[in-house]
Amino acid sequence: MAKNRSELVAEVAEKSGLTQKQVSDVLDGVFESFTEAVSAGDKLTIPGWLSVERTERAARKGRNPQTGAEIEIPAGYSVKLSAGSKLKAAASNK
């Protein structure tokens, strides 16, 4: 079952003893840091948990699914998230 942001904020607030507003502000700060790092092309790593980095995608040819016409897809950027050892262990219930 998926959790949305408000459920996550409520759970962290309960476990940490902080208010939901404080937890929400911290999450905003974390995501702002992720955004700044990715937009600058830097890799952000939280050892054991995850790493986030910007990757480059080369220009390539594609097809319009409606017409079948070949189109040129321009080069661009994407974001790569990698799970750390603690997150991988939690996923495999170790």
Automatic annotation (TrEMBL):
SMART domains: BHL. InterPro entries: Hist_DNA-bd (IPR000119), IHF-like_DNA-bd_dom_sf (IPR010992). GO terms for molecular function: DNA binding; structural constituent of chromatin. The keyword DNA-binding applies. Gene3D superfamilies: IHF-like DNA-binding proteins (4.10.520.10). GO terms for biological process: chromosome condensation. SUPFAM superfamilies: IHF-like DNA-binding proteins. It holds the Pfam family Bac_DNA_binding. Keywords: DNA condensation, DNA-binding. GO terms for cellular component: cytosol. Belongs to the bacterial histone-like protein family. PANTHER family: DNA-BINDING PROTEIN HU, DNA-BINDING PROTEIN HU-BETA. This is HU family DNA-binding protein.
